[in-house]
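Interim report, section 4.2 (structural modelling).
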Amino acid sequence: MIAVWTIVEYGFREAVRRKMFAVVIVLTVAFLFLFWLANHYVFRDLSTISPPADVHVDTRTFAGAFLVGLSMFATLFLGVVLAVFLTLGVVSGDAERGLLQPLVARPIGRSTLLVARFLGAAGVCVAYVLVVYFAGVLITGLTGHWYPDQVVWPGLELAGGVLVVIALSLLGSVVLSSTANGIAVFMLFGAGLVAGLLGSIGHALNSHTIKHASTIASWALPFEALYQDGLRMITEHASGLTGFLLQLGPFGGAYVHGWGIRVWAVAYVLIVGALALVSFARKDV
Amino acid sequence: MPNALAVRNLAKRYGSVQALRGVDLDVGEGELVGLLGPNGAGKSTLVKIAVGLVRPTSGSAEIAGARAGSRAARSRLGYLAELFRFPGWTSADEVLELHQRLAGSRGGAAERARLLELVALSDAAGRRVDGMSKGMQQRLGLAQALVGDPRVLMLDEPTSALDPVGRRTVRLLLEELRGRGVSVLLNSHLLSEVELVCDRVVILLGGEVVAAGTPLELSRPRGVELETDAGTTRTDGATREDAPRLVAEAVAAGRRVYGVRVLTSTLEDVYLEAVGGETS
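Predicted structure of the assembly:
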């Protein structure tokens, strides 16, 4: 346990000393300011939006859900960027640079080292995602007087999505070089987002084939399914045309949701983590 | 008591490259063994297997009776890698503190100060690694390897970046460690350094041991040289045992003898003979 904490603390100190946190905080504050600006103007001009007379759309819910959905996408993206940069070179990258060998030669065990790096990255990224998510919700709530139907769960699912990405990135860091791993994880992330968007379209068009394909993608890359489920929950009670429009996306929908995907996401992290541990144990460094 | 390092029939294959081919090697308690060989001979692979960084294809390696790579084995050794780096954002003191915690050392600040003094870095305790010269980083690496008073030291090219003063510091340190009963496997290209400090030498070529023994055992007699009033004469093939007779014969012949030298091959001669001029 002491070794785990030592490595976690080492990771934190590195992030602080190398000014990674400073850069992240400054850019996040800039993002939140822009988000507040968007909220301010959207809700100020809300009264000027007038749907056709025979159509009832709850414009405040629509605008609020759209903006919170946008902030959730940005939060997931920023969280994934942070996660990837914290973990993409943990094994192969550090081994190539000669940073890993002195640590692995110590009697702490490779599994301890990898678990500690996971916990360190997870601690930073989960805290980051939750802070940014709740800040986004609060900005929309205070500016536009609209709050999501579910406030806590979507944030937790976003954080869960980032944990999935951390596990994938750590596995990639064992078997790939840093650059290849970074590219691979970002491409998987992009593929997941595209699959999610396709799922929304398939849902709107009631296309069985597209829905089936995107469901498979969601189970294969559960960070996307968690994100989609989070989006679903922010307008869980929206109905009628408002609910239908939101489900069309891009910041709405969810065709795979509920406890099934949450449990699978936990199992997925454990399976990917176990694969990373086994691969690292067998790796020559 | 088991040997500090016991390697038996060790083989390692990287794809199509056979890095080690059935190597046997022992390092006894308190023994300082030099590992020599051209680039690609398998020296670093052997050290990495002993440390647990690389898995052998076959054969075994044990550190003080514990399987190489096991927690027990790693808790008994200190290691300085050939190519290593410490994070540039850390100070020398922080590097040692990190390794103290990972090694479970309770030496605290006193141990860190002692180690930095041993490698002549006392004045640089607070200096960041990225502000250190390559030689200073190598000495810090050596101090790191000594954290927790290991029984066995694996040093892979510990003086490659050091100037002559730095090399002397390391040589004196190795002698001191031997005096304290620490076993050392020293992988080095610097033959003179190995010859000066090592109890035994093992020469690897193409993943095999081609010569092993004490520097004295490995050296070959090259004759005896007599310096007399008639000039310097050399008797090829003569050994140390022949020297008194040769001196007596010269005196009996009326020569005045000013000096006598028993000629033996240097470790460099032995090495070149063993590796056959191989460089990589």
